[in-house]
Amino acid sequence: SSSIKRILVTGGCGFIGANFVRMELEQDPGLSITNLDALTYAGNPDNLADLAAEPRYRFVKGDVADRPFIMKLVAEGGFDALVHFAAESHVDRSIEDATPFLRTNVIGTQNLLDAARAAKVPRYVQVSTDEVYGTLGPDDPAFTEDTPLTPNSPYSASKAGADLLVRAAFHTHGMNVVTTRCSNNYGPYQFPEKLIPLFVTNALADIPLPVYGDGKQVRDWIHVLDHCRGVDAALRKGISGEVYNFGGRSERYNMDVTKAVLQLTGKPDTLIRYVTDRPGHDRRYAVDCAKAESELGWTQTVTFEKGLADTVAWYKANAAWVDRVKSGAYRNQEA
Ligand code: NAD
Fold it and tell me: Residue ranges of the NAD(P)-binding domain (predicted)?
């Protein structure tokens, strides 16, 4: 059995964090998880409501940017590992106002690193994104872990800043840290401001689908559970100081994803609305995850076609979750 018995997860009420918490508790009966989440607009207690009676799960409401609070929580927690998902995560919001991105993504990460070091937490995992690598031309090779960081949005710049602080904690303080960089996730519990859940929920409600620019942006899509398995592999098997990329080997044009959503929901292409492109919109992301495959024994298990069909089915079957997110009702509760 694992030496990891107690994990502090941050951002567990968000999309990926919620999937990760549920996966970990299911796969390891000896594990307990504390979920620290500030419950911003993206934090939805409904995502883990089914764990309310689970004794191995504890929710703590708090802000990673609140340094005294974080220092105390980590000092008293007796954690074997800290897995940091909490972030401001939406590019469009970062273009509107970068301030919360610096506060949560940069300062919050340094607070957690300092707290983990002070409490001698044996393992720290930074959950990052392929967007820190910038953008690719149509024929460029995919991002590897050695691709220079050239982020283009305030969001990705703040995540790159956090990654560099993690790197510094390894080199300066000898902390045991691992960083994961993953491509675009999709799956259950994703807040419907991101492309796939926005388009699925709009299509199901016969609301138009706003496609940025020419729709020819290329993204690599990975099912959230494959990403969660990657974070788990990095947590348990990753070499300290290393970065591991995760991707879905599923590069798709945004327009093709849009058409697939319309097909799966049985809605007409006339729902498509072209809207002015996002300023500075990265053209293409593609991730080389050979290192994770060879060094962590990780591999994708969900194809994009199967994963997208399952995801559309999940949003259809969870109309109450969708209604509470879209109406804002999910915000009127504590945990
Ligand atoms: P999300 O926006 O769905 O969830 C973020 C969570 O963090 C929310 O529950 C929110 O309440 C919480 N949070 C925000 N600010 C906080 C603060 N100051 N203190 C404590 N909690 C706070 O995000 P997600 O899509 O689940 O992404 C999780 C992580 O994975 C992020 O670090 C993101 O950069 C990274 N990532 C996401 C993707 C993707 O496709 N979604 C891809 C690669 C990496």
Answer: 8-310
Residues in the chain, pLDDT under 70: 1, 333-335
- Domain membership of residue 244 (yes or no) is yes
- Here the ipTM equals 0.99
Residue-level pLDDT at 2: 79
47 CA: nearest ligand 1 atom: 9
Which residue has its alpha carbon closest to ligand 1 atom 29? 85
Q: Average pLDDT, whole number, for the chain?
A: 96
CATH number for the domain including 145? 3.40.50.720
DSSP β-bridge partners for residue 251 = 220
User: How far from 43 is each of 34, 112, 131, CA to CA, in Å?
Assistant: 15, 19, 22
Q: Residue 220 CA to chain centroid, in angstroms?
A: 14
- Ligand 1 and 9: CB distance under 6 A: no
Query: For residue 1, is it within any domain?
Result: no
The DSSP secondary-structure symbol of 226 reads H
